[in-house]
Amino acid sequence: MQFRNHSLALFTVCLLGTASFIGGCATTGMDRSVKTSNSIQDVDNEIKKFSVQIDSTDAALDALVKSGQQDLKKNFDKYSDQLAKLEHEGKRVIKHMDEMKANSTQYFAEWEKQGDSFTNPEIRELSEERRLKLAEIYAQVPKAGAGIRGAYNSYLTNLKEIQKYLSTDLTPKGVEAITPVATKAVRDMGTLKSSLQPVVVALDEIKAELYSKKK
């Protein structure tokens, strides 16, 4: 994976025609290129892990409300464990998306400043073309992910309140009483998972632009 990340960074620098290697900005340009490409892969990886964890948490909640009088404590503990993992993964997704936005903003700002360094007008034009095109595609990720934070916080709040309720009334009657709320929370999983899809599409578009060969 590390090799792939660095390959993406090198490919980006060469293909996009940045001036990262000109003068004293070479190291800075390369560093920012690596950070930007790494943050793309980080977001991609975290989105996939988060999606799997959503399913695992919902399965644990579903098992808890259907457990009847058997294994209530065991199923509650499993649900609590999956919920903690969901919270952890959700925070990582948001963190990496924020990092990708910051890294790409710095990267393209530096690229724009260096554009005038090219003396060859064709290279200068190509650099500007590619910068604008890639900056537009990269910007789609934070834009597409705008709904994730809200959906995640709402979903997590409901799940944690179910946990809190059951922690003081972990009885068959307590489970029966909270089941309608828990069942709705399981259904609401679709809202959170749907909020991830635009980001997946935007990331696929970036990878296609960097890796796909023109026919």
Provide structural commentary.
The chain is mainly alpha-helical and 215 residues long. The protein has one domain: Four Helix Bundle (Hemerythrin (Met), subunit A) (Up-down Bundle). It has 7 helices and no strands. The chain has helices at 2-16, 26-65, 72-114, 121-144, 148-168, 172-187, 189-211. Helix 1 (2-16) crosses helix 2 (26-65). The longest helix is centred in the middle third of the chain and has 43 residues, at 72-114. 30% of the residues are buried. Mean pLDDT is 80; it is low at 1-27.
What is the class in the CATH system? Mainly Alpha
Supply the CATH architecture: Up-down Bundle
Name the shape in a single word.
Answer: rod-shaped
Strand content: under 5%
Structural class: mainly alpha
Q: Roughly what percent helix? A: over 70%
